[in-house]
Amino acid sequence: MTKGMKIHLDRTICDGFGVCAKHAPGYFSLDDWGYAGLIGDGAVAEADRDAVMRALMDCPVHAIMEMDERRPDAVPPPLSTDEDPAAHLKTEASEAEWGFTR
Tens digits of per-residue pLDDT, 65-83? Predict the structure, then answer.
């Protein structure tokens, strides 16, 4: 069973282009200065998913994000190795190997 889409709007990033309200007016409103506000709790109905995804993708400053249901503690930790991590650092001696030059 798939969970519904949930979005978050970062108002500190919004520059007031209004593209989101144009594509999904049921989920975004504009204040007196043209900055977006999220209507509701961010839960998106399946029927409105395409319009909200269009708003998310067309936002010029990427102020709209799709919330991931995974919790940080659900991600497995990286495997522990006894190898020295400094052996893989990019240094002047390994410029040719890593493909960067000055």
Answer: 998 765 656 666 666 666 7
pTM confidence score: 0.64
Tell me the CATH number of domain 6-67, given options 3.30.70.20, 3.40.50.300, 3.20.20.140, 3.90.1640.30: 3.30.70.20
In the block, residue with structure tokens 């409103």 = 29
At residue 101, φ and ψ (nearest 5 deg) are -135, 170
Q: Which residues of 24-40 are buried (b: 16+ CB within 10 A; e: fewer)?
A: beebbebeeeebbebee
* Contact yes or no for 56/7 (Cβ under 8 A): yes
**CB atoms < 10 A from the CB of 55, how many?**
23
- Domain range annotation of the chain: 6-67
